[in-house]
């Protein structure tokens, strides 16, 4: 599941803009990635 969200963080900005949603700021994405690394030993590729 984390890989899906990582994909969405990397590729989803254009999709969210098409759907008129608000994209997450890079700082928020990076904070979430840091939490994943600490809790689940997950590293983005």
Could you characterize what this model shows?
The chain has three helices and no strands. The chain is mainly α and 45 residues long. It has one domain (2-40). The longest helix is centred in the last third of the chain and has 15 residues, at 26-40. It is elongated. It starts with a helix and ends in a 5-residue tail after the last helix.
Supply the key terms:
3 helices; 45 residues; mainly alpha
Our Rg estimate from Cα atoms comes to: 11 Å
Q: Name the average pLDDT.
A: 93
Cα shape: elongated
Question: How many beta-strand elements?
Answer: 0
What's the tally of helices?
3
Poorly predicted runs are: none
- Distance between the ends: 14 Å
Derived structural class:
mainly alpha
Strand content: under 5%
Secondary structure: helix percent:
55-70%
Query: What order do the helices and strands follow?
Result: HHH
Biggest beta sheet summary: none
Number of domains: 1
Quaternary structure annotation: single chain
């Amino acid at each position: 599941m984390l890989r899906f969200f990582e994909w969405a963080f990397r590729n989803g900005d254009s999709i969210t803009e098409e759907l008129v949603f608000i994209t997450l700021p890079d700082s928020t994405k990076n904070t979430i990635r840091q939490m994943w690394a600490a809790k689940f030993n997950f590293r983005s590729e």
